[in-house]
Amino acid sequence: MPPKPLCLTMGEPAGIGGEIALRAWSLREERGLPPFFLIDDPGRLLRLAAAIGQPGLPLAEIAAPEEAETVFAAGLPILPLAAKVDAVPGRLNPSNAAAVIESIERGYALVAEGRASALVTNPIQKSVLYRAGFSHPGHTEFLAALAGGIEPVMMLVIEGLRVVPVTVHMALKDALDALTTEMIVSKTRITATALRDAFGIARPRLAVAGVNPHAGEDGSLGREEIEIVEPAISILKGEGWNVFGPKSPDTMFHPRARATYDAAICHYHDQALIPLKAIDYEHGVNVTLGLPIVRTSPDHGTALDLAGTGKANPESLIAALKLAHRMTRGG
Predict the structure, then answer these.
(1) What does the mean pLDDT of the chain come to?
(2) Are 86 and 95 a contacting pair, CB within 8 Å?
């Protein structure tokens, strides 16, 4: 049986998603990309290709994912949306919200049905979706709802570093108030399971960060390590996971330290994302763990200021496509 193609969603049509998809396809041979198809409006992509100076870039409209493998070498396979998209690069249009949501829902369904191997999502503009009644904080939570309400875990990946924020899009004070031993245990357990099953790491090593400077210095700089983090580590060790810490956050991301673990468990958004983006801003990939499917995404936003200029960098999308392909093969 031939391998299934990857499914790429449209994302915010006023952003750079379409442009980086076109550029990724044009680099398919140079970068060794697996076949993928894009759920989008072919007409808007033709207009976009012309706007960024690639009017002859071939598109291949398909009726089903199964056709993508055959046409991929000759043109970027496009599975048309039911809705037409009225998009001007850099200019948000709330009327496109339904098409954005349709793209995600159809993509998830196609992967869940086994007609595509994995889901790769282009960035969305959440403010537009909120005005259309979208009730989820973002992609991750929406996909978790589509999966039946599972607990999602966001992992960010670059070469040589994987990070997981236990709390995500919350004000720092709210994140620290929300942090619990049970939350750390659950998200670390999901992470360890995914590293074993999807990344092919037989015995994953997980370093758990401290919350406070110097991991609290035995309680003199805060008691979260003693009262919240250390009990979580004890529970996880008791389950047989190779977990250690709490590690001082300011010393766990230099190269020698990174070589000692397979993922870093962090407690709030910036504790995880600042070191990752400082090390490699261009190639970050967002992975949703805990889903019954593989899902990755570029680790950047819609970049409305770059949309339509021909200057958008496809590297993060290329990394997301390649990582999704590896994960479907167990690492």
Answers:
(1) 94
(2) yes
pLDDT tens digit sequence for 158-202: 999 999 999 988 899 999 999 999 999 999 999 999 999 999 999
Amino acid at position 150, single letter: I
Q: What is the pLDDT of residues 72-82, one digit of tens each?
A: 999 999 999 99
pTM of the predicted model as reported, rounded to 2 decimal places:
0.93
Tally Cβ neighbours within 10 Å of residue 225.
26
**Nearest C-alpha neighbor of 200 from the set 305, 18, 22, 331:** 331
The answer to whether the CB of 38 falls within 8 A of the CB of 78 is yes
Pairing of strands 59-61, 76-80: parallel
CB atoms under 10 Å from CB of 307, counted, come to 26
Yes or no: say if 108 and 292 are a contact pair by the CB < 8 Å rule: no
CA distance 125 to 26: 25
What would the pLDDT profile of 63-113 be if each residue is shown by its tens digit? Answer: 999 999 999 999 999 999 998 898 999 999 999 999 999 999 999 999 999
Compute the residue count for the chain: 331
Q: Name the one residue in this structure whose structure tokens are 């049970």.
A: 182
For domain 160-277, which architecture applies?
A: 3-Layer(aba) Sandwich (3.40)
The CATH architecture assigned to 6-151+292-328 reads: 3-Layer(aba) Sandwich (3.40)
Residue spans of the domains in the chain: they are 6-151+292-328, 160-277
Q: What does the DSSP 8-state code read for residue 226?
A: I
